[in-house]
Amino acid sequence: MIKLLTFPPAFGLFAASPFCVKAAYLLNMSGQKWEREDMLDPRKMPYGKLPAIRAGERLIADSDRIQTYLESEGADFNKGLSDLDKANARAFIRMSEEHLYFHLVLDRWADDAIWPKVRDVYFSQVPPGLRHVIAAGVRRKTLSGLHSQGLGRLSQEERLARIEPDIDAITMRLRHSHFLFGDQPTAADASVAPMLAAATASPGVTLMGRMIEGNEVLMAYIARVDESCG
Ligand SMILES: N[C@@H](CCC(=O)N[C@@H](CS)C(=O)NCC(=O)O)C(=O)O
């Protein structure tokens, strides 16, 4: 049986990480038998990140590579999509994982009011005496990465102006069908819905969370994808 190495449940979700939720959705969609194995420290993983899966002797890290593996075993996550839809789906996945994701990280790690709640969940296994020091070091590194990436240099207003068109694009597609590319969930839903869900589940009032919570189309979509793929 496949083992999904994932962060543990947090904020009322399967995991705090949208990539771990994506991997769980893909596994469910593939029809493979699997079980979760929770861990909080991913440093020994191939990329130092989660998710990863153990399939027989193989350790496969990164949700994209997990998808490729499941496809090599016969799964079709884009069944019925035209080549044009597949091309558009790819862009939606990248928008979710390479743009919205970094706003999610900023919302959780950069805001001084929200950070203590996130810290106590992420670093719950670190003994209380050391927790604040270790967490502060990881936080510094994370925020420095976001500064280098660029989004960490923007004001709240500037960030909002970047998030809004992405949210509008997702909403626009969902006005036409139950899922992003038709009436069945596909790979794009496995990526986008967990990102939106993560934003709404983050503790405190966050930029992206507020925007999504006020959007009925997206809230219904998050629930629909979880019902179908969770
Ligand atoms: N491209 C990777 C991204 C995975 C990722 O960024 N995982 C984060 C959690 S959301 C992580 O493990 N971070 C731990 C760290 O950077 O130390 C995927 O698709 O699986």
Automatic annotation (TrEMBL):
Pfam families: GST_C_2, GST_N_4. Coiled coil: none annotated. Residues 18-113 form the Thioredoxin-like fold domain. One of its GO terms (cellular component) is cytoplasm. It comes from the Bacteria. InterPro entries: FAX/IsoI-like (IPR026928), Glutathione-S-Trfase_C_sf (IPR036282), Glutathione_S-Trfase (IPR040079), Mito_Protein_Transport_Metaxin (IPR050931), Thioredoxin-like_fold (IPR012336), Thioredoxin-like_sf (IPR036249). This is Thioredoxin-like fold domain-containing protein. It comes from Roseobacter denitrificans (strain ATCC 33942 / OCh 114) (Erythrobacter sp. (strain OCh 114)).
